[in-house]
Amino acid sequence: MERPAWAPRSIDISVPSVSRIYDYYLGGSHNFEVDREAARKAMEFMPGLPKIMQANRAFMRRAVRFAAEQGISQFLDVGSGIPTFGNVHEVAQAARPDAHVVYVDHDPVAVAHSQAVLAGNERAGVVAADLRKPQEILASPEVQQLIDLNRPVALLLVAILHFVEDEDDPYGAVAELRDALAPGSLLLLTHASYEGMPLPAERAGGAVDVYKDIRNPLIMRSREQIARFFEGYDMVEPGLVPMPHWRPETETWDPDDEDPWAYSGFAGVGRTA
Ligand SMILES: C[S@@+](CC[C@H](N)C(=O)[O-])C[C@H]1O[C@@H](n2cnc3c(N)ncnc32)[C@H](O)[C@@H]1O
Is the Cβ atom of 106 under 6 angstroms away from ligand 1? Predict the structure, then answer.
Protein backbone atom coordinates (compact mmCIF):
# COMPACT_ATOMS: atom_id res chain seq x y z
CA MET A 1 0.00 0.00 0.00
CA GLU A 2 1.36 3.42 -0.92
CA ARG A 3 1.93 5.76 2.00
CA PRO A 4 0.60 9.29 1.41
CA ALA A 5 2.66 12.28 2.53
CA TRP A 6 0.35 13.02 5.51
CA ALA A 7 0.87 9.55 7.06
CA PRO A 8 3.83 9.60 9.49
CA ARG A 9 6.34 6.75 9.06
CA SER A 10 5.73 5.59 12.61
CA ILE A 11 2.17 4.41 11.99
CA ASP A 12 1.05 0.97 10.92
CA ILE A 13 -1.32 1.68 8.05
CA SER A 14 -2.56 -1.90 7.95
CA VAL A 15 -4.32 -1.51 11.32
CA PRO A 16 -7.48 0.65 11.64
CA SER A 17 -7.33 3.67 13.95
CA VAL A 18 -10.10 5.36 15.92
CA SER A 19 -9.23 8.82 14.63
CA ARG A 20 -9.11 7.75 10.96
CA ILE A 21 -12.40 5.82 11.28
CA TYR A 22 -13.95 8.98 12.75
CA ASP A 23 -12.47 11.02 9.89
CA TYR A 24 -14.22 8.66 7.46
CA TYR A 25 -17.61 9.03 9.22
CA LEU A 26 -17.24 12.80 8.89
CA GLY A 27 -16.45 12.59 5.18
CA GLY A 28 -12.72 13.35 5.56
CA SER A 29 -9.87 12.08 3.39
CA HIS A 30 -7.32 11.03 6.05
CA ASN A 31 -8.22 7.36 6.18
CA PHE A 32 -7.23 4.06 4.56
CA GLU A 33 -9.22 1.09 3.27
CA VAL A 34 -8.68 -0.75 6.61
CA ASP A 35 -10.30 2.19 8.40
CA ARG A 36 -13.20 2.36 5.96
CA GLU A 37 -13.74 -1.38 6.24
CA ALA A 38 -13.93 -1.19 10.06
CA ALA A 39 -16.25 1.84 9.81
CA ARG A 40 -18.56 0.06 7.36
CA LYS A 41 -18.65 -3.02 9.61
CA ALA A 42 -19.60 -0.90 12.64
CA MET A 43 -22.28 0.81 10.53
CA GLU A 44 -23.91 -2.56 9.82
CA PHE A 45 -24.89 -2.52 13.51
CA MET A 46 -25.27 1.23 14.03
CA PRO A 47 -26.21 2.69 10.64
CA GLY A 48 -26.56 6.12 12.21
CA LEU A 49 -22.91 6.44 13.28
CA PRO A 50 -22.17 9.36 10.91
CA LYS A 51 -25.26 11.19 12.27
CA ILE A 52 -24.01 10.69 15.84
CA MET A 53 -20.62 12.15 14.85
CA GLN A 54 -22.22 15.12 13.09
CA ALA A 55 -24.36 15.87 16.16
CA ASN A 56 -21.19 15.63 18.26
CA ARG A 57 -19.31 18.13 16.07
CA ALA A 58 -22.29 20.48 15.98
CA PHE A 59 -22.45 20.47 19.81
CA MET A 60 -18.71 21.11 19.98
CA ARG A 61 -18.99 24.19 17.80
CA ARG A 62 -21.96 25.58 19.78
CA ALA A 63 -20.18 24.95 23.07
CA VAL A 64 -16.95 26.64 21.87
CA ARG A 65 -18.95 29.69 20.75
CA PHE A 66 -20.73 29.67 24.13
CA ALA A 67 -17.39 29.56 25.97
CA ALA A 68 -16.05 32.45 23.88
CA GLU A 69 -19.21 34.47 24.63
CA GLN A 70 -18.60 33.81 28.33
CA GLY A 71 -15.24 35.53 28.00
CA ILE A 72 -13.06 32.42 27.72
CA SER A 73 -10.09 32.86 25.43
CA GLN A 74 -8.10 29.66 26.15
CA PHE A 75 -9.08 26.24 24.83
CA LEU A 76 -7.47 22.92 25.72
CA ASP A 77 -8.89 20.23 23.43
CA VAL A 78 -7.87 16.73 24.55
CA GLY A 79 -8.62 14.00 22.00
CA SER A 80 -8.88 16.67 19.31
CA GLY A 81 -8.70 14.19 16.41
CA ILE A 82 -7.75 14.70 12.77
CA PRO A 83 -8.66 18.28 11.78
CA THR A 84 -11.72 18.35 9.56
CA PHE A 85 -14.46 20.89 8.89
CA GLY A 86 -15.14 23.56 11.58
CA ASN A 87 -12.24 22.90 13.94
CA VAL A 88 -12.01 24.29 17.45
CA HIS A 89 -9.29 26.84 16.59
CA GLU A 90 -11.36 28.14 13.65
CA VAL A 91 -14.56 28.50 15.68
CA ALA A 92 -12.77 29.95 18.72
CA GLN A 93 -10.58 32.37 16.75
CA ALA A 94 -13.54 33.47 14.60
CA ALA A 95 -15.40 34.36 17.81
CA ARG A 96 -12.32 35.82 19.51
CA PRO A 97 -9.23 36.50 17.39
CA ASP A 98 -7.16 36.51 20.60
CA ALA A 99 -8.15 32.90 21.45
CA HIS A 100 -5.35 30.48 22.29
CA VAL A 101 -5.91 26.81 21.44
CA VAL A 102 -3.92 23.68 22.28
CA TYR A 103 -4.83 20.36 20.69
CA VAL A 104 -3.83 17.09 22.36
CA ASP A 105 -4.07 13.64 20.84
CA HIS A 106 -2.15 10.38 21.10
CA ASP A 107 -2.74 9.47 17.47
CA PRO A 108 0.22 10.33 15.20
CA VAL A 109 -1.95 11.18 12.17
CA ALA A 110 -4.08 13.54 14.27
CA VAL A 111 -0.93 15.23 15.61
CA ALA A 112 0.83 15.48 12.22
CA HIS A 113 -2.22 16.85 10.43
CA SER A 114 -2.93 19.32 13.25
CA GLN A 115 0.66 20.57 12.96
CA ALA A 116 0.19 21.09 9.21
CA VAL A 117 -3.15 22.89 9.65
CA LEU A 118 -1.81 25.11 12.46
CA ALA A 119 1.44 26.10 10.72
CA GLY A 120 1.82 29.86 11.01
CA ASN A 121 -0.91 30.18 13.68
CA GLU A 122 0.98 31.62 16.62
CA ARG A 123 -1.89 31.24 19.04
CA ALA A 124 -2.41 27.51 18.50
CA GLY A 125 -0.33 24.38 19.00
CA VAL A 126 -0.54 20.61 19.25
CA VAL A 127 0.78 18.12 21.80
CA ALA A 128 1.27 14.38 21.33
CA ALA A 129 0.09 13.12 24.72
CA ASP A 130 -2.33 10.80 26.44
CA LEU A 131 -5.36 11.80 28.51
CA ARG A 132 -4.41 9.02 30.94
CA LYS A 133 -1.30 11.05 31.83
CA PRO A 134 -2.70 14.51 32.58
CA GLN A 135 0.56 15.79 34.08
CA GLU A 136 2.34 15.25 30.74
CA ILE A 137 -0.31 17.36 29.04
CA LEU A 138 -0.03 20.14 31.62
CA ALA A 139 3.78 20.14 31.59
CA SER A 140 4.05 20.19 27.78
CA PRO A 141 5.82 23.24 26.28
CA GLU A 142 2.73 24.08 24.20
CA VAL A 143 0.44 24.25 27.25
CA GLN A 144 3.07 26.13 29.22
CA GLN A 145 3.53 28.69 26.44
CA LEU A 146 0.00 29.10 25.15
CA ILE A 147 -2.22 28.57 28.19
CA ASP A 148 -2.16 30.68 31.34
CA LEU A 149 -3.41 28.28 33.99
CA ASN A 150 -4.16 31.20 36.32
CA ARG A 151 -6.98 32.26 34.01
CA PRO A 152 -10.11 30.26 33.04
CA VAL A 153 -9.75 27.62 30.35
CA ALA A 154 -12.32 25.71 28.32
CA LEU A 155 -11.29 22.07 28.58
CA LEU A 156 -12.76 19.96 25.79
CA LEU A 157 -13.18 16.24 26.34
CA VAL A 158 -15.35 15.68 23.31
CA ALA A 159 -15.91 12.06 22.21
CA ILE A 160 -12.76 10.84 23.96
CA LEU A 161 -13.73 9.53 27.39
CA HIS A 162 -15.62 6.59 25.88
CA PHE A 163 -12.20 5.34 24.74
CA VAL A 164 -10.81 5.28 28.29
CA GLU A 165 -11.57 2.12 30.23
CA ASP A 166 -12.47 2.21 33.94
CA GLU A 167 -9.26 0.38 34.83
CA ASP A 168 -7.33 3.38 33.40
CA ASP A 169 -9.13 5.67 35.85
CA PRO A 170 -10.80 8.21 33.54
CA TYR A 171 -12.49 9.88 36.55
CA GLY A 172 -9.09 10.44 38.17
CA ALA A 173 -7.65 11.98 34.98
CA VAL A 174 -10.62 14.33 34.60
CA ALA A 175 -10.29 15.37 38.27
CA GLU A 176 -6.54 16.03 37.87
CA LEU A 177 -7.19 18.33 34.93
CA ARG A 178 -10.04 20.08 36.79
CA ASP A 179 -7.78 20.73 39.78
CA ALA A 180 -5.13 22.31 37.53
CA LEU A 181 -7.57 24.83 36.04
CA ALA A 182 -8.46 28.29 37.41
CA PRO A 183 -11.92 28.93 38.89
CA GLY A 184 -14.45 29.82 36.20
CA SER A 185 -13.03 27.19 33.81
CA LEU A 186 -15.42 25.16 31.69
CA LEU A 187 -15.57 21.46 30.87
CA LEU A 188 -17.13 20.74 27.46
CA LEU A 189 -17.90 17.04 27.19
CA THR A 190 -19.68 14.47 25.04
CA HIS A 191 -19.83 10.73 25.62
CA ALA A 192 -21.36 7.75 23.81
CA SER A 193 -24.21 5.87 25.45
CA TYR A 194 -26.80 3.26 24.61
CA GLU A 195 -29.34 5.53 26.32
CA GLY A 196 -31.33 7.38 23.69
CA MET A 197 -30.14 5.15 20.84
CA PRO A 198 -32.96 4.19 18.45
CA LEU A 199 -31.91 0.49 18.58
CA PRO A 200 -31.69 -1.84 21.59
CA ALA A 201 -28.16 -2.36 22.95
CA GLU A 202 -28.24 -6.03 21.92
CA ARG A 203 -28.61 -5.04 18.26
CA ALA A 204 -26.27 -2.04 18.29
CA GLY A 205 -23.57 -3.85 20.30
CA GLY A 206 -21.91 -5.35 17.20
CA ALA A 207 -20.49 -1.89 16.47
CA VAL A 208 -18.87 -1.81 19.89
CA ASP A 209 -17.29 -5.19 19.10
CA VAL A 210 -15.59 -3.68 16.03
CA TYR A 211 -13.72 -1.25 18.32
CA LYS A 212 -12.87 -4.12 20.70
CA ASP A 213 -11.40 -6.03 17.74
CA ILE A 214 -9.10 -3.11 16.88
CA ARG A 215 -8.01 -2.89 20.53
CA ASN A 216 -9.64 0.46 21.17
CA PRO A 217 -12.71 -0.59 23.10
CA LEU A 218 -15.65 1.78 23.05
CA ILE A 219 -17.04 2.09 26.57
CA MET A 220 -20.75 2.85 26.51
CA ARG A 221 -21.61 4.56 29.81
CA SER A 222 -25.00 5.41 31.31
CA ARG A 223 -26.12 9.01 31.75
CA GLU A 224 -25.47 8.65 35.46
CA GLN A 225 -21.90 7.43 34.91
CA ILE A 226 -21.26 10.27 32.46
CA ALA A 227 -22.65 12.84 34.92
CA ARG A 228 -19.93 11.77 37.41
CA PHE A 229 -17.26 13.30 35.14
CA PHE A 230 -18.69 16.69 36.16
CA GLU A 231 -17.87 16.25 39.84
CA GLY A 232 -16.64 19.61 41.13
CA TYR A 233 -18.36 21.50 38.29
CA ASP A 234 -21.71 23.32 38.34
CA MET A 235 -23.72 22.36 35.31
CA VAL A 236 -24.49 25.11 32.81
CA GLU A 237 -28.12 25.07 31.60
CA PRO A 238 -29.65 22.84 30.21
CA GLY A 239 -27.37 20.30 31.99
CA LEU A 240 -26.30 16.92 30.64
CA VAL A 241 -28.65 16.29 27.72
CA PRO A 242 -28.85 14.48 24.37
CA MET A 243 -26.51 16.35 22.00
CA PRO A 244 -29.09 18.21 19.85
CA HIS A 245 -30.80 19.56 22.99
CA TRP A 246 -27.75 21.51 24.17
CA ARG A 247 -28.51 25.17 23.37
CA PRO A 248 -29.68 24.84 19.75
CA GLU A 249 -28.80 28.05 17.94
CA THR A 250 -31.70 28.33 15.52
CA GLU A 251 -35.02 29.53 16.88
CA THR A 252 -36.92 27.30 14.49
CA TRP A 253 -35.07 24.17 15.68
CA ASP A 254 -37.54 21.32 16.08
CA PRO A 255 -36.52 18.11 17.89
CA ASP A 256 -38.71 16.14 15.50
CA ASP A 257 -36.66 17.28 12.49
CA GLU A 258 -33.50 15.78 13.97
CA ASP A 259 -32.26 12.34 12.88
CA PRO A 260 -33.14 9.85 15.69
CA TRP A 261 -29.49 8.71 15.81
CA ALA A 262 -28.40 12.17 16.91
CA TYR A 263 -29.94 11.38 20.31
CA SER A 264 -27.38 8.63 21.05
CA GLY A 265 -25.01 9.95 23.67
CA PHE A 266 -24.88 12.97 25.96
CA ALA A 267 -23.40 16.44 25.94
CA GLY A 268 -22.88 18.95 28.71
CA VAL A 269 -20.89 21.93 29.92
CA GLY A 270 -19.83 22.51 33.53
CA ARG A 271 -18.18 25.47 35.24
CA THR A 272 -15.85 25.39 38.23
CA ALA A 273 -16.72 27.72 41.09
C1 LIG B 1 -13.88 10.27 18.06
S2 LIG B 1 -12.42 11.23 17.99
C3 LIG B 1 -13.01 12.81 18.56
C4 LIG B 1 -12.31 13.99 17.94
C5 LIG B 1 -12.86 15.36 18.37
N6 LIG B 1 -12.73 15.57 19.80
C7 LIG B 1 -14.31 15.51 18.01
O8 LIG B 1 -15.18 15.30 18.87
O9 LIG B 1 -14.60 15.75 16.84
C10 LIG B 1 -11.52 10.66 19.42
C11 LIG B 1 -10.07 11.11 19.46
O12 LIG B 1 -9.55 10.84 20.77
C13 LIG B 1 -8.25 10.35 20.63
N14 LIG B 1 -7.93 9.57 21.85
C15 LIG B 1 -8.52 8.42 22.27
N16 LIG B 1 -7.97 8.04 23.46
C17 LIG B 1 -7.04 8.98 23.78
C18 LIG B 1 -6.16 9.15 24.88
N19 LIG B 1 -6.13 8.27 25.89
N20 LIG B 1 -5.34 10.23 24.89
C21 LIG B 1 -5.35 11.13 23.87
N22 LIG B 1 -6.17 11.02 22.80
C23 LIG B 1 -7.00 9.96 22.75
C24 LIG B 1 -8.26 9.52 19.37
O25 LIG B 1 -6.96 9.36 18.83
C26 LIG B 1 -9.17 10.35 18.49
O27 LIG B 1 -8.45 11.26 17.69
Answer: yes
Tens-place pLDDT, residues 131-151: 999 999 999 999 999 999 999
- In this structure, how many other beta carbons lie within 10 angstroms of the beta carbon of residue 256? 5
CATH number, domain of 83, equals 3.40.50.150
Q: How far is the CA of 111 from the centre of ligand 1 (A)?
A: 11
Using CA atoms, how far apart are residues 213 and 13, in angstroms rounded to an integer?
A: 16
- Tell me if 197 is assigned to some domain: yes
Q: CB atoms < 10 A from the CB of 61, how many?
A: 17
Q: Is residue 249 part of a domain?
A: no
Q: Ligand 1 within 6 A of 130 CB? A: yes
| 36 within some domain | yes
Please write the tens of the pLDDT for every residue from 163-219: 999 999 999 999 999 999 999 999 999 999 999 999 999 999 999 999 999 989 999
Q: Residue 98 C-alpha to ligand 1 middle, in angstroms?
A: 25
Instruction: Look at ligand 1, atom 20, and give the residue with the nearest C-alpha.
Output: 130
Please state, in angstroms and rounded to a whole number, the distance separating the CA atoms of residues 48 and 50. Answer: 6
Number of domains in the chain: 1
219 within domain boundaries: yes
